[in-house]
Structures are given as C-alpha cells and as structure tokens.
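FW: tagging you since you asked about this chain on Friday. Here's the raw sequence from the shared folder, copied in full. Didn't touch anything.
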Amino acid sequence: MKTKHSIIGIFLLLLASLTSCHHATENKALAGIKKLPRFKILSIDSATCLSSENIPAGKASVFFYFDPECEHCQKETDSIIKNKEKLKNVQFYFLSNSTAREVSNFYNYYGLASLKNVFVGMDYEYSFFNVFLPPSIPYMAIYNSDKRLSKVYYGAADIASLIAYTRN
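HL: got it, structure written out here
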C-alpha cells in the first residue's frame, strides 16, 4: 500500500513539473512576440511582399495562420465572414504554408477579395512560423492598435471572444 502511494506521489510530482515546464516555455515564447515581431508575407498573386514592419498602427490586427484543408480553419473563416460588420475595423492577415494553388482556391471559395480588411498570403520563408511557432492550426495572434499582443488562440477561437479582443 505504501509503495502504491509512493508511485502515485512520484507520478503527480512528475506531472506537475512537466506542466510547469510547458507553461514556462509557453510564457517565454509569448514574451518574444509581445511587440509585433518581424516576418514577411507574400500575397497569393506574388505581387506584394508585406513586411510586418510596414503594418500600420492604429487598428487591431489579427494574424490567422491556417491550412486551406483544415475544417476548423474553414469554420473560423465562416465565423469571421458572418461577423464582418462587427470586425470591419480589424485588419486580418491570413497566412499559410500551403501551396499557392490551395491558398488561392481558399481565397476564391470564401470570396475574401470582397473584404477590404483581409490580406491573404503565403508564409513563403516560414518567417511567421519560425517566430510564432504555432503548435497547431488554426492559430491566431491578435495585436492591438499599438502593435502589442492582446491574445493568442491555439485552435479555434470563439467569435465573441475574438470580437472582444479586437476592440481598442
């Protein structure tokens, strides 16, 4: 009986240390992106290479890292489109490492060209990925009007929460 309690105690101690290590690593990673870091996005038509340094302050920005084939990413996009009036003062940057064809098909399917506050591009140098290290998709990093990190979503975001975090 004593051995059983010792094993359970060791297991709980190990679990606690792994959890705190994960949170420490996550907090360290988030500390590096508190102010909008440098990365590049290539537009899907390859005509524009946007550097994060050139993103203007003054309105909230949402960086949505997605895969066109991801069901959660598709649902997230649907939610954003359905709430476009509530999000009209937010600049969205949809970023993907998928092929240009896949991203272009996604762009056309959702009619993103009709949304003036949406830029869709390719993380062609993996510069976004290497800075943010998204552990899953969808992944969203929300920056306020001063280019300071407001919120990070790992996985799908609740649209009401997204709207709340993008208000300045």
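FW: Strands lie at 40-43, 49-51, 61-65, 91-96, 118-122, 139-143, 149-154.
HL: agreed, and The longest strand covers residues 91-96.
FW: great, closing this out.
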